[in-house]
Amino acid sequence: MMKNLVVRNSRWFRSCFFFLAIAGCFFPAAPTFAAADEGACSASSESRQLDFWLGDWTVTYPSMSGGSASKVDLSLDKCLVVESWDGGRGRKGENMFAYSADDKSWHGMFADNQGRVHVFEGKVAQGFAEFTGPSRGPNGEAVLNRIKIVRMGPDKVEQSWEKSTDNGASWKTESRGEYSRRNPS
């Protein structure tokens, strides 16, 4: 009985040692990835292109009564721009945007508490951003979505959401929000 226990334990130790030796071949460089990328987003001019949008905002919609609130800030060591918005009447959501140094483009995602999720790719330049991404309409038809974020002044931003059912040949504005900074500097 004792001999079986010793044999089983030595097999277990050999298996563990073998596993650790193999794992060591694949993971010795993992800490160098983190060290090489520290502060990469805060130092990248591309990643800072949406900084004009950061802050606390009151949002009004010309075609609708009432307004909403929006807070735009940075997350993940300044790599991710996150807009958290409250549209009133129980509607809330988040927009997330980030620049990828890998493919040299911007990516975004929209999600709300109504179950809607959209994924976008886009371009950002000084004071202007445009993101597009596909979705499905109520009858399963292909829809192309376009979000534009435009700096109108130091304390004003406009965001519009447009949809196209003809692959971008024509666009219909679904909403247009006028952002006013809550505490202008």
Q: Write down the CATH topology of the largest domain.
A: Lipocalin
Spatial strand order of the main sheet: 1-2-3-4-5-6-7-8-9-10
In N-to-C order, the SSE pattern is HHHEEEEEEEEEE
Q: Helix proportion of residues, in percent?
A: 10-25%
What characterizes the major β-sheet?
10 strands, antiparallel, barrel
Strand percentage lies at: over 45%
What's the tally of helices? 3
What structural class results from the helix and strand content?
alpha+beta
Work out the count of structural domains.
Answer: 2
Residue-averaged pLDDT, rounded? 83
The parts where pLDDT drops under 50 for at least 5 residues are 5-9, 16-36
Query: What is the CATH class designation of the largest domain?
Result: Mainly Beta
N/C terminus separation: 80 Å
What is the molecular shape?
Answer: globular
Secondary-structure arrangement, i.e. CATH architecture of the largest domain: Beta Barrel
Radius of gyration: 24 Å
CATH homologous group name of the largest domain: Calycin beta-barrel core domain
What is the number of E strands? 10
